[in-house]
C-alpha cells in the first residue's frame, strides 16, 4: 500500500509477525492467569508479547503506551506515540475462546493514523493507515456501506451483555452479536465484517487506538460517547465509551444512542 506511513506499516506488520511467533508457544485455554488490580487477568503471554512489540516497534524520539509496560510520561512530550495492547481479550485467551488479538496503534499529534491487529486463533490480520486504506488478510477492505440499522450486525461486549447493559437495544432492528476483545470488534467493523460496535463503558487508549486507526482508515466513523473525536496520548489514558460504524450508519446509530450519550465533562481529555 502506498502511504506516507509506509515505514510505520512495515514495522507494524513485522511486529504482528513476531507476535504470532510468541503466540505459537502458548495454548489458549491451557495457560495460567494472574490477576492485576481491578481483577483483570494477565498471563506470561501478555508480558512476552509486550517485550517483542516494544523491540520491533519503538525508535528513538517516539513514545510508548502499553497496558503491560510501566507508563513513562515522557511520552507526553512526543508527537509520535505507539499505543498498544499486547493481548486484548485475555479472558477469552485463558478460556480458549478465539476472540483475542494483538492491537497496535500509531498516534501522531493525538490522532490514530495507523494500526494493525491480528487474531492468531482465526488467522486474521488487519493493517491500515489513514492515507492508504485497510487490508484484511492482505486484500483491500473497507467499512460497511450499509445505510440502515435494519439487519445490521452490531458487535457487543460479552461481559457488557452479561451485565445487562445491552438490554435497551435488544428489541431494535440490529442483530446484536456478543464477543470478546474491543480491539477485535473494531477491526471487524473496519473490514466490513460487521456494521458497528459500541461500548458505553470507559476503555483505555490501548484497548482502542489500533482499532480506531483501522476504522477511520477504512472510511468508517468513530467518536466517544461524549460525541468527541478520539484523541490519544493523554496523561490519563482512560477514555469514555466508544462508538464505531460504517459512515452511512452514523446518523441513525447516534440517534438511537442519544439518550445514552454523556455531555463532555469539565476538562475532559484536556491537556496531555
Class by SSE composition: alpha+beta
Shape: globular
**Going across the major beta sheet, what is the strand order?**
3-4-5-6-7-8-9
In CATH terms, the superfamily of the largest domain is Fructose-1,6-Bisphosphatase, subunit A, domain 1
The low-pLDDT segments are 266-272
Number of beta-strand segments: 16
Average pLDDT, rounded to a whole number, is 91
Q: How much helicity do the residues have?
A: 25-40%
User: What amount of the residues lies in strands?
Assistant: 25-35%
Please, could you describe this protein's structure?
27% of the residues lie in helices and 28% in strands. It is globular. It starts with 5 loop residues before the first helix and ends in a 15-residue tail after the last helix. The chain folds into two domains: 136 residues, 2-Layer Sandwich (Fructose-1,6-Bisphosphatase, Chain A, domain 1); 108 residues, 3-Layer(aba) Sandwich (D-Maltodextrin-Binding Protein, domain 2), CATH 3.40.190.80. The chain has 272 residues and is an alpha+beta fold. 45% of the residues are buried. Helix 1 packs antiparallel against helix 2 and helix 5 packs parallel to helix 6. The chain is built from seven helices and 16 strands. The C terminus is likely disordered. The strands form four sheets. The protein has a seven-stranded mixed beta sheet, with helices on both faces. A five-stranded mixed beta sheet has the order 11-10-12-16-14. A two-stranded antiparallel ribbon has the order 1-2.
Amino acid at each position: 500500500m502506498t502511504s506516507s506511513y509506509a515505514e510505520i506499516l512495515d514495522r507494524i506488520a513485522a511486529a504482528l509477525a513476531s507476535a504470532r511467533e510468541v503466540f505459537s508457544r502458548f495454548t489458549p485455554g491451557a495457560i495460567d492467569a494472574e490477576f492485576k488490580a481491578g481483577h483483570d487477568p494477565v498471563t506470561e503471554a501478555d508480558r512476552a508479547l509486550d517485550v517483542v512489540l516494544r523491540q520491533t516497534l519503538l525508535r528513538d524520539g517516539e513514545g510508548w503506551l502499553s497496558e503491560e509496560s510501566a507508563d513513562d510520561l515522557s511520552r507526553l512530550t512526543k508527537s509520535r506515540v505507539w499505543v498498544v495492547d499486547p493481548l486484548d481479550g485475555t479472558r477469552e485467551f485463558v478460556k480458549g475462546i478465539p476472540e483475542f488479538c494483538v492491537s497496535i496503534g500509531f498516534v501522531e499529534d493525538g490522532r490514530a493514523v495507523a494500526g494493525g491487529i491480528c487474531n492468531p486463533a482465526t488467522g486474521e490480520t488487519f493493517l491500515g493507515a489513514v492515507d492508504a486504506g485497510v487490508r484484511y488478510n492482505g486484500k483491500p477492505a473497507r467499512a460497511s456501506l450499509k445505510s440502515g440499522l435494519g439487519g445490521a450486525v452490531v458487535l457487543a461486549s460479552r461481559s457488557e451483555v452479561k451485565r445487562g447493559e445491552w438490554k435497551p437495544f435488544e428489541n431494535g432492528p440490529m442483530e446484536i452479536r456478543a464477543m470478546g476483545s474491543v480491539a477485535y470488534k473494531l477491526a471487524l467493523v473496519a473490514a466490513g465484517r460487521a456494521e458497528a460496535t459500541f461500548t458505553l463503558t470507559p476503555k483505555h487508549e490501548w484497548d482502542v487506538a489500533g482499532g480506531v486507526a483501522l476504522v477511520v482508515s477504512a472510511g468508517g466513523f468513530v467518536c466517544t460517547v461524549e460525541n468527541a473525536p478520539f484523541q490519544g496520548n493523554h496523561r490519563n489514558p482512560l477514555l469514555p465509551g466508544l462508538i464505531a460504524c460504517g459512515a452511512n450508519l452514523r446518523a441513525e446509530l447516534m440517534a438511537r444512542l442519544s439518550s445514552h450519550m454523556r455531555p463532555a465533562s469539565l476538562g475532559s481529555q484536556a491537556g496531555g
